[in-house]
Amino acid sequence: MRKNIVAGNWKMNTTLPEGLKLADEVNAALAAEKHNCDVIICVPFTHLAPVAAVIDQNVLGLGAENCADHTSGAYTGEVSAPMVASTGATYVILGHSERRQYYGETAATLREKVDLALAAGLTPIFCIGEVLAERENGTYNDVVKAQVEDALFHLSAEDFGKLILAYEPVWAIGTGKTATADQAEDMHAHIRGVIAAKYGEQVAQDTSILYGGSCKPSNAAELFAKPDVDGGLIGGASLKCADFMGIVKAF
Predict the structure, then answer these.
(1) 223: exposed, middle or buried (C-beta count within 10 Å: 0-12, 13-18, 19+)?
(2) 190 is catalytic
(3) Pick from 113, 102, 122, 201: which is nearest to 152 by CA?
(4) CA 231 to CA 241: how far, in whole Å?
(5) Share of the chain above pLDDT 90, in %
(6) 188 an active-site residue?
């Protein structure tokens, strides 16, 4: 049985004191009542170890927003998967559209990152999705299929089964636009079919696929009600405890 998951991606937001306060608020809110999903926050590198010290990871999972494509060495400014794991974090977002767009991350780079994250014991939250032009010209299914195949299909079925996928229609991130629940379901079902063709139906059915495009408390329940949508990768709404918990409560 695949898990329902709500993961927050703080992006480049919050100072350390602000981040500690927010993490503490979310942890307390989750501890106060039982919820029908796993909840994760992915925070800036500077916050990882301090946040790990103030949350209960039986209640709230912790992840990084990225890691390097090398284990160690002369790569000034980079943070490796073993370094992330050493902070107490257990998840890492990889392949986010902003990393692809602004930092030129390719399938080859992402293959390395996925392998190193898994070797360090981290669970990758691997992002895929199309831009507006690809949605409008009808190539979006092929684009997303290629993103999955090119970066992930070198993995064994066992290792693929350790991943969480996140579909982010890039045209719906931070724009206020949201894919309709039916559009999200269609793509999630398509992704599951791509996985099944490679690894078999069981692996496909066991893979959690999150929706990551302007998910808010007001639309989360409709999205999460779809059979192939297993939760959300939440950007802006993860920066306020009340908004984030509103999404968690959609389950």
Answers:
(1) buried
(2) no
(3) 113
(4) 17
(5) 94
(6) no
